Input
Amino acid sequence: MELVSQHVKQIMEECKVRARDQGLTFDDETLEYIVTNRDMIELSPKVMIPTLYDYWVHDVRVLSGKGMYEAYPSNPYETVINTRPAISYYNDNNPDWLNVMIFYHVLGHIDFFQNNLFYKNTWDVDLTGQALADKRLIAQLRSEVGRRWVDYVIEFARGIDNLVGYQKELDRAFRDERKKRMSRSDFYFDVFLQKVKTVSHNDYLKEITRYNECLKNGEDFYDLVVSKYPEFDELYRKALHARSDEQLDVMEYIIEHSPFLRAEENKWMKSVIHIVRNTSLYFQPQIRTKIMNEGWASYWHEYLFMRDDRISGHETDYAKINAAVTSLPKVGLNPYALGMRLFQHIEEMDDRGCYSFDYFLLKDEVGKKKYDKGNDSGHDYIFKIRENMNDFTFINTFIDQEFLDRHKLFVSGKRLNQQRMTWEYYIKSRRAEDYREMIIDTLYHPPEIHVDLEKTKDGVLYLNHKFEEKPLKTDYIENTMVGIEFLWGGPVHLETSEPSASAPDTAYSNFWDPSTPAGGTPPPPPKIEWKRVRYVMENRKLHKREI
Output
């Protein structure tokens, strides 16, 4: 692994200039390395961070990736890391014209990392430096207490690292920023008068009038406030430094309240759990913006490269590679293709003024196709979307019937042909609502499990699963709860929901119903009835009880 040559670096710098001219924003400093195809495989399994702490699962994935590469040699194009400065890796055998395309793609990723609000928690973190420090700490602990025990803690912590309070941490970051910007006026009118003093509507309007008069006459309004409310300044100071008492996520609660981790000989485990939790928090936004992120980068590598004179003579080569990356499959999901075409669709629709009441009220299909107010504002609009949305809001808001019809998309179904005894795929629906639901079902959505403080007593950790019509994977419950019991140092209870005994075992059971005609669409499965159950893990033995 080595830095790219000065010639290739010059190409990257020129790409930055052209990207900024089109509105992309990113830091000046970036680092580009070249690696072999085989070495590129080793970067991806370790979540693209070479300095990340070592763990046996990483090694297994590296070996698996190498085995796949031996069977199906490929040319992975790039890997980019959300760090400061941003680091990207490229193959050592790329021609210059291909590097131009890839650089535009990478700059699209970096722009997304550094401007999408769901990445706010990562903006001030030196990930590579922190990961290296974490790796050294874990290596030191392994030498002191033994590799086996450290890896036990890592494995048990990784079993619940999807339960980190990412949304809460994100809200805390924005709340802290708002506190820093909160002026005395904001606090007085928004908090003090309404929540502390709970003044009447009439008195509130009088205070606004008095404030405006003081501004007009050049008087200090807050001299009058302090004379009337001596406690105001102290409450304002406390509000700027107040820490909210929001509920801790499962990993935080174990770190702070586990009797087992309080023991002097076990305190080192807290550092390991912190490392796993912080690493998970760092990568949460990437998991939640996969379609947007890849679509944004693909949109820009196509938009910029097609306008770049360096494509001359390589149009056919570019078309083949771009088609392999951004082809839109009829069955399955390609986040590059879906995200890119959705951004293009949004830009075109906004250019025509289609995101308006006048357009939505149209019932005439011909009128909709001809509708064009000439807004020409789509370019700016997609930048706002890039800044404020994640995959769920992006898909749920902008996949519409026009998008499906334009690209001839549909929801496919799978059924059994009883005459041929083979599975066959068929077009199940062409409705935008069904297609949205299909894509949303593929998105990352970890279970919402919190600590029930009222029932957590007498040494028992009580976890409550907020049921959202998706049961937990029962195959993993026992191993996960064994790890939680070890870290907690006592019994663990988990309350969740499962299908009742009368519910069908599989959605495919009706395929074998002789009343279903061959090749016909099977009837929908009966509605599932749910019941609440409690899993109890005590002394590494799992029991299940109905509630």
Notes: The chain has five domains: 2-116+289-322, 128-165+249-285, 172-241, 327-417, 447-546. The two ends are 57 Å apart (CA to CA). Confidence is low (pLDDT under 50) at residues 56-74, 505-519.
